[in-house]
């Protein structure tokens, strides 16, 4: 769980591990080997790039020593608000941890678009938007790589390749999205939710039907 603003600097945070993110958790720039090294904010534990960790604040839990913190924590700790930060977040800027914790389903899936190579993606269908599939690079990323509004897609669950036996495909006119799960059980869990979503239904509606 994230530290509340009032606790920032008073308690040591849980550090997000480097391999849990592919981009700075503040400015969302992708990390790369050369220019964007990963740094940890000593107040909230988030992984940030050097630009976003270029602030220092006195942290109570560390004997009031000056520590590297991110811009957001810096403003909270020194008590100034940044009105610009309140700008409405775009659709992709829903934090993965936020939606994964309140999702209909979430897991890693292999993903392929058109003829690009397969890549691993953290996929989430959030409860508040049960008809949209969000794709992240890693479970703690703060911005989605892509979203697929599932309504109206056709589901094809016959695997095309022997290498990925647990694959399925979503097609709608010219757009084709291929996914592959690690096992058949996981594939079926996803298909159960997706079959409903493409018809504009959510798993909750189905449960109500079963109860009545």
UniProtKB/TrEMBL annotation:
Example GO molecular function: guanyl-nucleotide exchange factor activity
* CDD domains, per the entry: FYVE_FGD1_2_4, PH2_FGD1-4
Question: InterPro entries, per this entry?
Answer: FGD1-4_PH2, FYVE_RhoGEF_PH, PH-like_dom_sf, PH_domain, Znf_B-box, Znf_FYVE, Znf_FYVE-rel, Znf_RING/FYVE/PHD
Q: Does the keyword Cytoplasm apply?
A: yes
Tell me the ranges covered by the PH domain, including all copies: 102-199
GO BP term (any one): cytoskeleton organization
Domain of life of the native organism: Eukaryota
Query: What GO CC annotations are associated with the protein?
Result: cytoplasm; cytoskeleton
Give the matching SMART domains: FYVE (SM00064), PH (SM00233)
Q: Where in the numbering of this chain does the FYVE-type domain appear? A: 18-74
Keywords, A to Z, come to: Cytoplasm, Cytoskeleton, Guanine-nucleotide releasing factor, Metal-binding, Phosphoprotein, Repeat, Zinc, Zinc-finger
* Compartment(s): Cytoplasm, Cytoskeleton
Domain (B box-type): residue spans on this chain: 19-69
In Swiss-Prot or TrEMBL terms, this protein is called FGD4 protein
The scientific name of the source species is Mystacornis crossleyi
**Gene that encodes it:** Fgd4_0
């Amino acid at each position: 769980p994230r530290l509340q603003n009032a606790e920032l600097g008073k308690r040591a945070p849980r550090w997000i591990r480097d391999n849990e993110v592919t981009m700075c958790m503040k400015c969302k720039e992708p990390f790369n080997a050369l220019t964007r090294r990963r740094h940890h904010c000593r107040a909230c534990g988030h992984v940030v790039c050097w630009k976003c960790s270029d602030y220092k604040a006195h942290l109570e839990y560390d004997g009031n020593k000056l520590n590297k913190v991110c811009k957001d924590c810096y403003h909270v700790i020194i008590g100034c608000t940044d009105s610009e930060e309140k700008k409405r977040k775009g659709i992709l800027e829903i934090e993965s941890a936020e939606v994964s914790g309140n999702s209909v389903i979430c897991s890693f899936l292999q993903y392929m678009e058109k003829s690009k190579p397969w890549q691993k993606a953290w996929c989430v269908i959030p409860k508040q938007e049960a008809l949209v599939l969000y794709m992240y690079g890693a479970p703690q990323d703060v911005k989605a790589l892509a979203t697929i509004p599932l309504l109206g897609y056709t589901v094809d669950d016959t695997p095309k390749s022997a290498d990925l036996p647990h694959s399925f495909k979503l097609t709608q006119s010219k757009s084709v999205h291929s996914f592959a799960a690690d096992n058949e059980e996981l594939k079926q869990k996803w298909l159960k939710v997706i079959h409903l979503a493409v018809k504009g239904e959510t798993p909750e509606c189905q449960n109500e039907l079963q109860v009545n």
